[in-house]
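ARCHIVE CARD
Drawer: 12
Card no.: 0347
Subject: one protein chain, sequence and derived structure
Cross-reference: see card 0346
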Amino acid sequence: MSQENEERALVLLPPIRNIGDPQWYREYVEAQLDRDGCSFGNDCTEEFDLSQLDPLEWKDQDHYGVLGLARLRHNASSDDIRRAYRKTVIKYHPDKQDVNNEALPPDSDQDAVFTCIKIAYEILSNPRKRRAYDSVDPNFDDTIPAVTDYNKEHFFEVFAPVFRSNARWSNKRPIPMLGDDLSPYDKVDQFYTFWYNFDSWREFAYEDQEEIDMAENREERRWIEKQNKSERQRKRREEIQRLRDLVGKPIDFRCVKFYIHFLHTRQCVQM
């Protein structure tokens, strides 16, 4: 496997089990790429409507979509991003529109579209800026499933994918799996201990409403920094609560089973 493919594999790999089986590792990565209509070393870009892009609304734009990486998103490697950018530039550069006359509608602002392409690449090619954008990716589902009779009955089917998708925010590796109804007590305890103490890298700087660069003096700059910091902390608290709700809401029948077993064992010892 080439260095580029290994890089792609590492971000595609689900951080929910300790990798000890190279064959499982390869099969999973290839399955993920096949799901996205891609394969190692192939072009994974796709068409995206750029005709209505406005540089003034860059924060609300899908930067992965702009570069044709809407499916790969955070799974895209740095090489994927560079290739997608070069391909998009060639197609939408204002000087190329006479040749690629079908790339944009006649009434489109070609310079505005090209500016948005450059903004997307600037963000996704910078690790710090990309991390900030990935943290608030509009395609990520923050929803926590409700505790209904159906969800209780299909606990693993409903909640395993949710834990799996939220695992991407973890600073710690490896991440324990939810397991199944046959998981022993120590594995279940390890899983919930990890999630009750979840260490997230998710941040919310991308959503800052006040731009520090717009400050006219030091005093205004400090005020903007204070406002942004306060808002980030509020969103951080909401994120912590969301993750606690994920761990606290599910009714895992295994916990009930272990508790009943514990009570029964203690009663037997007392007798």
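Annotation on reverse: Residues 1-26 have pLDDT under 50 and may be disordered. The CA atoms of residues 184 and 261 lie 12 Å apart.
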